[in-house]
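Form P-L/3: holo structure prediction, ligand histidyl-adenosine monophosphate.
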Amino acid sequence: MNISKPRGTNDFLPPESSKILAIEQKLRELCAIYNYQEIRTPIFEDTELFVRGVGNATDIVQKEMYTFLDQGERSLTLRPENTAAACRAYIENKLYGLAQPVKLFYIGPMFRYERPQAGRFRQFHQFGLELFGSAEPAADAEIISFAWRFYQQLGIRDLNLRINSVGCPNCRAAYKRALQDYFRPHLAALCGSCRDRFERNPLRLLDCKSQHCHDIGNNAPQIYDYLCGDCSAHFAQLKTLLDAASLPYALDWRMVRGLDYYTKTAFEIEAKQIGAQSAVCGGGRYDGLIEEIGGAPTPAVGFALGIERIFTALKAQGDDIDVEQGVEVFLISHDNDCKPAAFRLCEQLRAAGFSADMEYGSKSLKAQMKAADRMQAAYTLIIGGDELLRGEAVLRNMDKSEQITLPVDNIVSHLLRIKNSSDKE
Ligand code: HAM
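OUTPUT (holo model):
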């Protein structure tokens, strides 16, 4: 039996893997511009972290975690997201002792046992920002601005930025009651998961995917009538800041997000063209999470984006990421006797910083030329025959189909001169 990759996972092969690297590079550059530094946390954590952090009532904790016992009978879970782990690391490494805010980013695989479909995987990759130690709306605005700017720079079109406030534990209690009063007469008509959530998490009834439940919720009370003074002022100031930076947001009172830790701001960016899994990123403020997992009360805000969904969005609009491919020099040897000279030159070129490759075995000149074409070599270096006896080799510019004969000892310096002069152009 052939062994295949687990359902909902991907092999990223060249050139896709280079495109991912190019995206990550862009994200890292933007992090430098916005002054965020990288954090790397373990791929697995104590299960309790996610139960308490993400929330016991969430789909993630109830149905989607990869949880296992290790040899020491500890319950561990492959991280379904990175916010809870970043908070754990903030507490454990006493990052609260540093000047605040602490601004971190991460990139890496996350794991959720979801039903795989286009844009939804069981192992997927997230990039995220977490900003700890500021309760100011300007911090929320910065996170949203980062996300928006990134997609603008990538040229992704038709994006929809939706924002909401989900209040704080003080004002949310009254809102939950109002929602329960509204939905109670419709309970029998709601889907199974809405009925399940009615007691535990009535806010989630607002964003049910079923059209029927959605329609029932159309006239539900809106959170804006329930926000306390502090949450209301925070939301108003956030909108003022987003307006000041001309960020084109829409208010969406039904957007509540699938993780329990949010307070005040919640936001998502959607790319309509990519179908059902249209959220390219999401995030918000989570002022209670650090305390929930054992730290001192610390305000925080962040977001995460799905790397795979960037490609789906680009593909849907007929675009792609350009990556440079091919080697600079491919070495061709006339016969096996020339291999040591070819190998020496290949190594000299690599030592000088050129990407260089060669045929390892004995193939005809024609087959080696074909290999050079396949590798999109800018130059081929042909070693052997009378030239090698004279201490020379033939350097061929593949684009121009021109070639010159050079002393073997001058080849590296010759190519360096060409490279330096084209760098200056
Ligand atoms: P999330 O909305 O669960 O938030 O995930 C963020 C993004 O990850 C989604 O918008 C989507 O692009 C991508 N994503 C999620 N699940 C999958 C999947 N199964 N397959 C492919 N892509 C997926 C969080 O994870 C929060 N930790 C974000 C956050 C950070 N909030 C505050 N700080």
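COMMENT: The chain has a mean pLDDT of 95.
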